[in-house]
Write a structure and sequence with these properties.
Length: 409
């Protein structure tokens, strides 16, 4: 009988979990396991108790631990996926990290032990129960379907835009449409800007019925990944040190330090950018709205490091009531109402960074349109817009049975 390395890993971890943890969360201490450093990584980000409660429920429902793979864990999103799995105590049996030649062989310290980055191959990724893809769209187009194909493939949760608009592939913000994951093996995680905005829009849509939406964004450098963040930091340093008058740019179309750039992703024939059209296309798909539903966005890059901000004008079918809207936002999972202008409290990237909840504030009746609300939303795009969303999708799939630990052969 052939026993795969994944099966060996699962056996080792399940055995260790039986003795040390009800949910298979404690790392194995056997030298046979490749991820056996027991020192937990320190946690810097804050998280909401509402999410922690959700995960406790999930864990109680799940007797299994999972063989989890991450492709791109050295990048901006992938690093956060490791952190979210750790902080939410996702029942990781064995963690496997895959990268390119650039990072293969490097070691990554995680709460699940020290993991050596493996050179990616479809066959290794298929051995996992669930694989988070945090690489670009071309990579996902090439490999995602092959990783999840057949009964013995892995569930794939893809952070790129490769499959977001493909019929039959769910595009999921779990607080809105997690049911769409039932019976599926390939799930698309939404564009970060869309995911953040919809956390505020969805409870208001349920209350008043969304008719149109206009969004203007203020997006952080890390939206362009680790290289984008590095370019902002290095460019700012070079200007402040007097080394250069204007920073160099390779990642962004223009120097970002001390500038704003009204251009993210490629320009389309209609004059919008692809980033802007993603907000339109993805709002329609996630919220189950018609294909011609009117959503317009202007996406702007600003020289902040992390967390995207959005000014939203939402026009509704029904007359709006600010007090009711406020209550709905206060009660919405994944949302934190930060709206106390007397005390200068409103959403900002500095306060939203590292938070699981999206901050919503500056809530007011818009004076230019009937039945319209205007508000400001800030969310950590690496968390709600990527890593957190992906891990909560996996949690929901454990709950609804779409994600199961593979049987040991
Ligand atoms: N940044 C954001 O705010 C954000 C938000 C939502 C979604 N996304 C999406 O998430 C994905 C990742 O974005 P990111 O910002 O994290 O990018 P990033 O910081 O540039 O990281 C890219 C990762 O991909 C890995 N990689 C590249 N080529 C590979 C290959 N051939 N085989 C295996 N691994 C490979 C890199 O690993 P090596 O070092 O080994 O090359 C690196 O870990 C993208 O599709 C992006 O559009 C990003």
């Amino acid at each position: 009988m052939k026993i795969s390395s994944a099966a060996v890993a699962i056996v080792a971890v399940v055995a260790s979990s039986l003795s040390s943890s009800a949910y298979g969360f404690a790392p194995a201490s056997s030298s046979a396991s490749r991820s056996v450093n027991l020192s937990p990584r320190s946690s810097s980000s804050r998280q909401s108790s509402r999410h922690a409660t959700t995960m406790t429920t999930t864990l109680r429902m799940s007797a299994s631990s999972f063989n989890v793979g991450i492709v791109g864990a050295t990048g901006a999103v992938g690093k956060e996926i490791v952190g979210v799995l750790e902080k939410r105590s996702f029942p990781v049996g064995a963690l496997r990290i895959f990268g390119s030649e650039r990072s293969a062989g490097k070691e990554v310290d995680t709460k699940f032990g020290r993991v050596t980055v493996e050179l990616f191959s479809e066959s290794s990724a298929r051995e996992c129960d669930v694989v988070f893809l945090a690489v670009d769209g071309d990579f996902s187009l090439k490999h995602a379907e092959a990783i999840c194909e057949g009964n013995d493939g892995a569930v794939v949760i893809d952070n790129s835009s490769a499959f977001r608009y493909k019929e039959g592939i769910p595009l999921v913000v779990p607080e809105i449409n997690s049911d769409a994951t039932k019976g599926k093996k390939l799930i698309a995680n939404p564009n970060c800007t869309t995911a953040i905005g919809l956390m505020a829009i969805w409870p208001l849509h349920k209350l008043f019925g969304l008719k149109k939406m206009v969004m203007s964004t203020y997006q952080a450098a890390s939206g362009a990944g680790q290289p984008g963040m590095d370019e902002l930091m290095e460019g700012t340093r070079s200007v402040l040190s007097g080394e250069r008058e204007v920073a160099e740019n390779k990642i962004f179309a223009h120097p970002l330090p001390f500038n704003v750039i009204p251009h993210i992703d490629k320009f389309q024939e209609n004059g919008y950018t692809k980033e802007e059209m993603k907000v339109t296309w993805e709002t329609r798909k996630i919220c189950g709205l018609p294909d011609d539903f009117p959503v317009s966005c202007t996406a702007v890059r600003i020289p902040t490091s992390r967390a995207h901000s959005e000014s939203i004008v939402a026009i509704f079918d029904k007359p709006v009531d600010v007090a009711l809207a406020r209550k709905a936002l206060e009660e919405a999972p994944g949302v934190k109402l930060v709206d106390d202008i007397a005390n200068l409290k409103y959403p900002m990237p500095l306060t939203a960074t590292g938070q699981y909840d999206v901050e919503v504030g500056r809530l007011r009746k818009n004076i230019a349109f009937d039945n319209a609300l205007e508000f400001f939303v800030v969310g950590d795009q690496l968390l709600r817009g990527a890593a957190l969303n992906a891990v909560v999708v996996a949690e929901k799939m454990v709950e609804n049975g779409a994600l199961k630990a593979k049987a040991v052969v």
